[in-house]
Every structure is written in C-alpha cells, then in structure tokens.
C-alpha cells in the first residue's frame, strides 16, 4: 500500500473520464504526487459534473467509463508505486428515475425493502403527508397543475408512470388498474388526463400513491425527508443502520478487499447521525488505509481525537496560512473603508452578527421544515421538564436562536452522553441564545435536553426520545451553519474577499498569524501527521492565486480604497434603477471590483516588468462571461436583494449591465476605467505571484499531506464553481514540466533566472512545486510524523519571513518564505538578494554539539548555502529564487 505523501485532486465527469485520468498518471508521477484523488466515481444522476449525487452506489458511473477502465487506472497507479484516494458520499443519494432504490420507495412506500434506507418522516401529523413522501416539484399548486392537465400518465421503459413535464414518477402496481382499463378500452394515454373527468382520474390516481407532488415552495416548511442542506434532489440516508452501510458501501469495500483502492475521503461527515460509529465501522473494513474527513473546523475547534481517521481535508490549514499573508493594520484600514463605502446598507455590524442573522434566515426559510421537525421531537422531551410542562408554546424561536448561536458546526453527543467539549459548546451557545430568544427559559430547557446524560434501561422510551432529539438537532446545526455562513454571510461581508473562505472568519485577529500557523503546524505534526492540507479545493470560493493577489491589497489599503472611490464616481452613470435602489448597490459594486482585480489577466511575460496589461477583446469577453456567472451566484447567495428562490430580475440585470459596460471594448466611456484597472493590477500582480509562490513552498512542506487541486501547479486564477472546474490543459503542463526537469537536472542558472524575471508563464510555480514534492518522495521520514520547529528570524526584515524546519536536527528540511512582499520590495521586483534582505538571518539549530557552521543545499536552485554560527543569511538563501527549501549539503540527491 503506497504511503500517502501528496495527493492530486481531479474532478471526474463525462468530459474527464477514468481513461483520461489514467493518461495523466505518468505526468503526476514526474511531478511527485503519491496519490491520485478523485471526486466520486459511483453512478451519479445523468449529466452530473461533480458526482456527489450518487444514484446507485453499487456500480461505476458509466459516464466516466467501465469497471475495466477503473481497474486500468488503478493498475497504472500501482505500477508506479502510486495510489488512489476516492471521495465517497455516505450522507445522501441523488434521487429521481436514475435511483432504483428511491424509485422503489416511491412505488411501494413503507413496504419497500429500501424504505429504511432514507431518512423519511413517515408520520408527519397532516393528512396529506402522513405515510407519504412529499415531492416539492410542481411549479404551481397541485389543484392548478391538475386542472391544467399538466400531470399525465406516460409509458416509459415498459411501465406506466406519472409525468410532470420532464419529471416522471413510478406508480404503485396496485393502483394502475384504472390506467390499464383505459388503455385496454382502446383509448390513448394522452386522453387519460384530458378534461374535467381526466383531472378527476389523475387526482384519484395521485391520491392512491405513496408520494404527493406539491408546489416547490412547500419544501421549506413541509418537506418530510432529510436532505443535503436544502437541495431537494439529494435525499439523506440512515447510514447509522448497518444494513444500509453494507449495501451502500458494497462496491467500495469490494475494491478495498481486491487491493484496488488505497484510501477514502468522506464527504460531509457532519451530516451523519453517528459519525464516530460510522468511522469505526468503516475503519474495521478498510484496515490501515488512510481515511480523511470533510470536517470544517471553526477557529479554536479541534478534530475529535477518538475518531479513527488520518485527519480532515485541510480547510483549517488553508485559513491559518491565508492569515500569514494579510497585513493586520492594512486589513483594519480596508475594513473601515469598506464600512464607509457600504454606508447604510448594513455593513456596520460585526461579522458574527451578520453570520448569526444569516443563520436565522436560513432556519426560518429553507430549513424551516427541519426546525418544525425538531420542535415535534423536542416536545415529548421537554414535557418532562418542570419549567416547560404541557404547554403548546412554539419551540421554533428558541430552537433557531440556539442553533444560530452555535460557535461550531455541530456537537457529537451520543448514547454515552455529552463530553466536556460538547458541554462547553452548548453552554456557550445557550448563553448567547438567551439574550435573543423570546422565552429564555425555553432555551434553558433545550440546553438541558442537549446536555444528554445516559438514562437507565428502565426508561427506554425516554432515552430514545431524548437521543432522537439530540441527534436530529446535531444534524440540523451543521447545514444551518454551512448555508448561513458559507453560503450567505461570506457573500454579505466582503472587505477583503481572500478572507472569506470555507471555515474562515473574516474578523479573526491577524496580529499573531505566524505564531498561530506555527502552533497549528506543530499540533498537526504531533496529532494528525497524515491529515490533508489544502490551499485549493473544488469547494473553495477563490483559488489560492486569486487570494494571494487580493492579500496584497492589505499592504496598500489607502491606494485600494482611493481607487474604489474613484471608480465608483467614474461609473456612477452605469448603475441602473432596480425598484427602490440602483444596481449594483455599494457592497455588490465593491465585491465586483475586487473580483475583476483578482482575475485580471497576467501580461505576457516580457522583460523585467510584467504584471498585467489591458486585456484584448477576447480576454474581456471571457472575463465578462465568468464574472457575470460569479456575480449572479454572489448576489443570490447573499440573499439581500435577490435569491435563488426569489430572483429579482431588475436587480440582477442591473448588475449584469454594469459589468457588461465595464468590460465592453467598444465602449469609450469605460475605456478610462479599464486603463486604470490595468494599471492598478500591474502594480499588485507580481507581488501577488511572489506571495502565491511563498504559499506553495509553505503548503508543500508543512506537516500533513499536501493536496493539490487540478491544474494548480501553474498559475490558477479561478472563482467558485463552476469557474474552478474548467478544463485543465495537461499538454501544456507536461511540456513545461519537461522544461523544468531539464533546468533542474542541469542546474541551469540562466533558465532559473528566466523563471524569476518572467514568472507569468508559470514555470517558476511548477518548478517549486516539483522540487517540494520530490523532496517529500525522497525523504519521507523528514516529513510525515517528523518533528516541526519554528525557526527564529533576526534582522530588519524579520517580520517579512516565515521559516520552519522538519525532521531530526541532523537530517532536516528547512523552508524559508517571504510575506508582505510589496511593502518589502516597494514594487514588482522579486524579494531576492542582499539589497532587499540586508542583515536578516534565520537561525537553524543543527543538533551537533559544539558545531555551528553547516553547508546547506537549496532544492530550488541547487546552490550551496553556508550557515555561519548557525545563521543563514536571507540575502544568500533567497537568491535567485524568492523561496528556498534547504537540506544538509551532504544529503544524497
């Protein structure tokens, strides 16, 4: 079984298949990757671009290829000593005609052998939903749809099905006699639903089914199956039931037994009723193969040590690393300026207040059905609480206030009771919720119920009732946080968008960011040495290189704010009326400028000065298409002036028109703005590249297993999906890797200096990536569980350096990377040489008694660097490249 040293994530879909993944294996081996890491490959809903809507977990997705092609991919990896890390989805399945298990439930209801698979509330206390599945698929009310003749019966695949436009649903075999009689009487199916009599026939047929199609808007308050967040097409599973586990994991476990799978990534672990139970069951079946979990840790939260996993997928590292590159005072000034620009549009509150309000909005709207169900589960539990009694008070408000106050995604209380950590979380949330709830004593009653303590067997029903409430509460708080924070608040509060990442808090203190990174790295080296650490994923809201460029704004806050104010004046006439406001409103316009600056194209590498240039018409057109799609998502996610469920076309068209005018190459009125934007980006582009290069060096040598996202080995300026899932040009990457390999083999100083003087072509990023990954492959013992030490930096530029060592002192690997580079160099020059670094040095303890001098080899440049008195001069170490990875010179290469 290959040791997991570095993973490379690819998104599998019909345009990037198992065979295409096999073709890039030799390239990934040359790069230094140990494991190909794929998105889910089990059969998904037709046309899926991500695979998280698995419709049949027992077979390979035919859109990706055959099982033989899967085995061929595994064989290609294993021939090179590499492995396959597979993303799997235990929380939910994609539903619809492509899912035979869900179809059987709709066909037979509670009698279906698969009814126990899905988390369906069969006992909703309404006549319409009781013992039936509510399907919120109709564009209008049921009676209206029926009267219009839009619900019909069709023949499909040898059976009669209920149809609503492109959606079809199975019929209970016991109910099809009226249809059979109609057809056998020589009449067509089309006439079965015609006219008033046809409407009556359809109504009677539907009422006899185990499901009820209803207006889509009813999902928020009435849907009676648990979903993935608020996505109706993704139905949650009872994965805590062993038969469900065995059936849905049969294919994956068979691949494990056959030695055809080398590790697992578990999607949305917080959605499961009993994550620890699930992980123990899975660990027993996969042996020592690595398991990593998609678990979003809030600042200050730690992964539970009892979980039998290698660690998380690494968002906590992403946010710790991001903070290192943001200048604290500069960010504070940007935030103050942002609040002034936003004015009366609600930006005066703290991010915590904005996030809390957003969670309450989600709980009151798209997750209202979950809150209602929690109230039903809580009532028999609270009835035993003497402070509550038998009253009929609504529990929706205290439940929502309590969830909105949670500082983390969820707790993990189970039949063993609440841990000290869980108790602290619940107590903290309850203290805040009491300040907001209409009846604080109901919050206290809920708090007592959530602080579950084991109940004697003699009170079995009470124990079951309490656990049902607690576990359902925990399964609801996670989606509320994800939708409220990640998909709402992070689009509402955008002073510096590089801080608005999954698991991040934009108002988190920055002053001790380097110490925070060192402390977290040391803890990971000790506790979770094989956890993934990422900077980009398929879910990040901006790629790492985009964030690096935005981070530079914190070094020139006044210039950035002045530019935004000037641009708002220049473009005032482009704003369009949209009801009581003009579009875009200030926060949206501010985010739009950040977005354009962040992805503005790099200039063709030419000479010493590079950075950015005025894009041509094709580049402007591409930007317009990408940013228009992004801004539609951003304003709908913010849910302030428009949303996915209530789109305001006037506002959205106003934003689109504004963007189109800015990027129209034929529009003379905005030409001056485009010139200014190009000049501004030219100032920050190269400092952004140097910052991104520092991030690469730190990422790939930090404790944990570095995870690379597809294509990110070259400069990658991408926004949230689908922008970050565009096709990757592997032919270009293979060609450039050949150039990099030849330069490294020859230690070609001329080629190295070209990489630095013309960084825009991306070879310098590819070179540093390859050097770091090859080091992990060559000396795995110096990474993995090796000791981690922050290194002392002295001199005038010490605040601009991050340095650490891995491994034993006599066999170390040392990484040194600069930060806050525009302030350091004053322009777009690389942060290299003695003129920049002056007296700045890094102390490297050697561990050899009485010895202080040592020779080091830079794995990036191949040069020998001398340490005098245990000190390495930065002017020597950072030349010609602006980052360095050092090993003792006597280390075998």
How does this structure look, described?
The protein is 44% helix and 14% strand. It has 32 helices and 29 strands. A hairpin with a 6-residue loop joins strand 23 and strand 24 (813-818). The longest helix is centred in the middle third of the chain and has 33 residues, at 460-492.
Brief digest:
This protein is of the alpha/beta class and 893 residues long.
Structural class: alpha/beta
Report the C-alpha radius of gyration, rounded: 29 Å
Classify the beta-strand content into a percent band. Answer: 5-15%
Major β-sheet profile: 9 strands, antiparallel
Count up the helices: 32
As a percent range, the share of helical residues equals 40-55%
Distance between the termini: 25 Å
Total number of strands: 29
User: How are the strands ordered across the major sheet?
Assistant: 21-23-24-29-26-27-28-25-22
Shape: globular
Low-confidence regions: none
Q: Average pLDDT value?
A: 94
SSE blueprint and pairings:
Blueprint: E1 7-10, H1 18-23, H2 25-31, E2 35-38, E3 42-44, E4 54-60, H3 67-79, E5 83-88, E6 92-94, H4 100-108, E7 133-138, H5 142-147, E8 151-156, E9 159-164, E10 167-170, H6 177-184, H7 195-207, E11 211-215, H8 219-222, E12 227-228, E13 231-236, H9 242-248, H10 250-257, E14 263-266, H11 275-286, E15 291-293, E16 311-312, H12 315-324, H13 328-342, H14 351-364, H15 368-382, H16 396-404, H17 420-434, H18 440-450, H19 460-492, H20 513-527, E17 532-534, H21 544-552, H22 557-570, E18 576-578, E19 581-583, H23 586-599, H24 617-638, H25 649-662, H26 671-701, E20 705-709, H27 730-746, H28 749-757, H29 763-778, E21 788-790, E22 793-794, E23 801-806, E24 813-818, H30 821-825, H31 834-837, E25 841-843, E26 854-858, E27 864-868, E28 871-873, H32 874-877, E29 884-888
Parallel strand pairs: 1-2, 1-20, 2-5, 5-14, 7-11, 14-15, 15-16, 17-20
Antiparallel strand pairs: 3-4, 6-13, 8-9, 9-10, 12-13, 18-19, 21-23, 22-25, 23-24, 24-29, 25-28, 26-27, 26-29, 27-28
